[in-house]
Design brief:
It is a single chain. A hairpin with a 2-residue loop joins strand 5 and strand 6. The chain is of the alpha+beta class. The strands form two sheets. The chain has a six-stranded antiparallel β-sheet. A four-stranded antiparallel β-sheet has the order 3-8-5-6. It is globular, with a radius of gyration of 20 Å. Helix 1 runs parallel beside helix 3 and helix 9 crosses helix 10. It contains twelve helices and ten strands.
């Protein structure tokens, strides 16, 4: 790690600790910007990870996307180019040196706006890119992140004027980074990755319904074999595995937040067989539904 990056990390750590009081994810005055602080190693957290950029300032974290494992620490940033069902766990943190991170969510239209103003750097049908990757941050990108976080100490006029400009700069520098083509392909109409993104958006809004693989392939304008191959290249999962993860995560959320049994939760998220639901739930979360929920509520 270069000395300028180390100095920038120290400055960003100071800002995050000044601006956060509680553990976990803290929302801010800026839409889509969150500050994260954890003073201990966490349990794996299963969730839908929005399209986002996250820079790690202190500590270390591990993210699982299907069978693929991403590890990252100070001076790394992780990008998710589409919404993805993942599990994440802080693996290095203490009260003396907490895990600190800055997360910035973005929309497809925001990516598209920046892509339209930069030189195209990759062929339209280049190999389909994974929708999540880790890179080393540059001093220029780190400077933009620090300026964004400093805006939280500014007046409302500065926020309204400078926030969209700095957010565009961050997206621009990520797009021009060593793996930026993965983000660029998402916004390029006609690319394989663009088509998979549109299918993912459809899945997210219809996940509780019966979804036919043939219909998804048609929406992507691909054969079923080609669709399956490109979908897995983007998400590290087959379409069926992706849908199962979304449904099981939603079922877990329902069981935690509402008074219902496992059979009712299974039905709510689109399962027809309670026994199949229980088997797949246990496979993903490590124990049957009600046993898992009892353990989670005990932890809370």
């Amino acid at each position: 790690m270069t000395n300028p990056i180390r100095q920038q990390l120290n400055e960003l750590a100071r800002l995050i600790q000044l601006l956060t009081v509680n553990e976990g994810v803290s929302t801010t005055r800026l839409p889509s910007l969150s500050l994260i602080r954890e003073s201990k190693i966490t349990e794996p957290i299963f969730r839908l990870n929005e399209a986002s950029f996250c820079v790690i300032v202190q500590g270390e974290k591990e993210m699982l996307l299907g069978p693929e494992r991403f590890r990252y620490g100070p001076g790394n940033y992780i990008v998710a180019t589409v919404d993805l069902p993942v599990s994440g766990q802080v693996t290095q943190a203490s009260s003396a040196i907490p895990y600190l991170a800055v997360k910035l969510e973005f929309t497809f239209s925001e990516i598209l706006e920046v892509v339209q103003h930069i030189r195209v750097s990759s062929p339209l049908h280049k190999d389909t890119k994974r929708a999540m990757y880790v890179s080393d941050i540059s001093p220029e990108l780190m400077d933009a992140v620090i300026r964004l976080v400093r805006l939280l100490e500014s007046n409302e006029e500065d926020l309204l004027m400078l926030y969209p400009l700095i957010k565009k700069e961050i997206l621009y520098r990520v797009l021009k980074g060593p793996q930026g083509s993965a983000l660029e392909q998402i916004a390029r109409e006609g690319s394989h990755t663009y088509r998979i993104r549109t299918v993912i958006e459809y899945i997210l809004t219809h996940v509780h319904q019966h979804i036919r693989m043939e219909e998804l392939a048609e929406r992507a304008h691909m054969s079923q074999a080609s669709f399956h191959r490109h979908f897995k290249a983007v998400t590290a999962m087959s379409p069926l595995q992706f849908i199962k993860q979304l449904r099981l995560q939603e079922a877990r959320r329902l069981l935690m937040s509402q008074s219902m049994d496992a059979s009712e939760a299974a039905y709510q998220v689109g399962y027809e067989s309670a026994s199949q639901f229980s088997r797949e739930y246990s496979r993903l979360f490590g124990s049957p539904p009600m046993e898992d929920i009892k353990r989670l509520k005990g932890l809370e």
